[in-house]
Amino acid sequence: MSDDTIRLVTIGRILRRRRRLLAVLAVVGALVGYGASVLFPPRYTTSASVLLPGQWEERELLTQAEIATSSVVLDRAAAALGRPRVSGSELRDRVSAKAADGNIIKISGTADTPERAQRLSDQVAGQFVTFAARLAGDNPDAGAADAPEELRKTVVQTDRRITDLAEAADPGRTVESVQGRAELEKLRAALLDAMKKLDEADPATSKAGMVVMGPAARPTGEAAPTRMQLIVAGALLFFLLAVIGHLTAARMSRRLRTAPEIAAALGSALLGTVDVPGERPAHRPEDRGPRARIRRLLGVDTPWDVPPPQPSGGEAGRRIRYRRVCARLRDELPASRRLLVVVPDGDEVAGRAAGQLVAEAGSDPSPGSSSRGYPVLRVVGVSVSGPLVPDRDTESGALVVLSAGSWTAGELAGIAEACADAGHEVVGVVVAGTTRGRPTRTAGRPPREAAPEFAVHGHATGGSVR
Number of C-alpha atoms within 13 angstroms, CB side, residue 68? Predict the structure, then answer.
């Protein structure tokens, strides 16, 4: 799988063959999420809205939002809350403000209870309005706030004085009286225009008077992430990590999966592929410990990334494949010879295939012909960690039978070297697989496909298996 693209069928195979393990890991992730929800108490969030009358540009609204969460406003809000252990710096992580449509600043507060969240939002909104009004000059305690009103009064008095002067002027039609009245009217117009510009430029009339649009609503539900969200997130996280771990391990695996790669690693020719009915292998004595039982319970005692069993072609088709392998062995060898059938330890599929191959070789259709008969086969098991093949005795070659996707190139090279050290030439490779279903037995079938008893490791020769 190291060079293959990850496909949906691969993920489906993981879900199907590792469903128990994935379910257990999802439960563990849910428990971790529940523990996180216990460590982090629930939070509640609510918002208070502040209306800014007048015309405001977008950048000005953003500035007001920053002022709402400034240290001055938060410090005053913390003091008004009456909680000595809460400071303005601590409120900064629990208070946020943003500009909304319609010249509205939404101030959100988060606390561990709905009541505290509501009170926090209201306090920050109130302190923001007070501080903004002071900045805009809308503070009745400031002396400068009365200056525009005093100026207006002075302008009104001046206008009345101009009217009195115009009425007291010479009502005649002299040039001097007309010019005087005209100058007075110009002065009146100039004063009114100046007062109009003053009103337009006065921030207290255009952008003051911020209003809190009612108290904040009391929250009825927890703020994200809630306890249920943490539990679901933990289960999903562990599930995804398990799937990604399986995919990563499969891509990093160096086990050979194709018959040509296996034959090249052993340095011999591929004689064919055979199959055995797919069934769960019997548990060996060394697989009866607590760890083995846990592995069987979780479904991790068999590889998940082995090719799925192919549909069975029937007993007749399977026997034809074994006979073809025996025929190729007969054609490759100059005369009837004895061969060792080398099977890696732990390869249950290869062991069953080797037993069937020995049975087919024993049912030679031409037993009377010494030159055209099938070779005599004897099965030996070889440990891949320390391969040791019996020395050459009556056998004059070795036939390696193994399943795909179970061994690396280095392990197979070790088996080939062990055969060479024992004086056996590897005459061929047979790759075994599994098929779905167990076809019914037919008449005339050779002995049943039980895995043969492997010869003892070492230099013992033993007799042939017929």
Answer: 34
